[in-house]
Amino acid sequence: MSDADRDLVTALRAELAAIDPTRPCDLVAELAGLGPADQVRGRARDPILARLEVRLARRGASATSTARSAAAGEATQFEWEGAAEHCRMAYLRGRFLARGSLSVAGGRTHLEFVVEPGEAPIMAAWLSSAGLPGSWRIRRGRGVVTWKSAETVGLFLRRIGAGGTLLELEARQVSRALRGELNRFLNAESANLQRSVAAAGRQLAAIDELEADGRLVAQSYVVRLVAAARRETPEASLGELAERLGLHRSGVQRALERVEHVALHGERGAAPLA
Description:
- The protein is α+β, with helices and mostly antiparallel strands.
- The chain folds into 2 domains: about 160 residues, Homing endonucleases (Endonuclease I-creI), CATH 3.10.28.10; about 80 residues, no CATH class.
- Helix content is about 65%, strand content about 10%.
- It contains 11 helices and 4 strands.
- Strands 1-2-4-3 form a 4-stranded antiparallel sheet.
- Strand 1 and strand 2 form a beta hairpin.
- Helix 1 runs antiparallel to helix 8.
């Protein structure tokens, strides 16, 4: 992951941790989602989570006590079915901060929760009921709930309050898509230019050969006219030659094809051109 991608993920976590629940029930739900600190490896060294827990704890001893009681065991003790939507999103915000990770490297968006094995299928079912379906599996003894859909990840981040970071993520995706389209366009134009240069080179060589052995003067007026224009403007496209000469593009193309054919094979098999 690049430094810019790491900065974006850090900004996301900081933005989510800065949200201050306005309802006591959301405070309880978010603390339940965070779970007990001793269940998360390296959590004590995470300044974002440390500051969040201190701030939430200061919001009120009664709410904190209730939340800690709910979070003392497995995080799945959260009463999802009876919870309001805002409580569910507060819980998921806490769960993401405690157990979630986001990767945006290489233009691919990947979000996952690493939880206890028994929690993974329950959490996947909860997310699916909230319109956020994902996959789950057991990886090295841990449960992993995963989203690889940028659309689902974006919807999740929007619903848990990461509006600012989501705008930055979407801007990056749009910028990356535009760069991809521009590169494809430039590659196509470069290939077309190379083909045009190669074709013009063949045509000029054929014109020189026909003129050298006197066969050019035996060609029709249109062929001679096109051949002269090609010599004068070797860089011109077929459309530009046609516009200059007042001919159809197809007529210019047939004339140059005849020049090449006659130079290679003589008049045998060459289509007549008036």
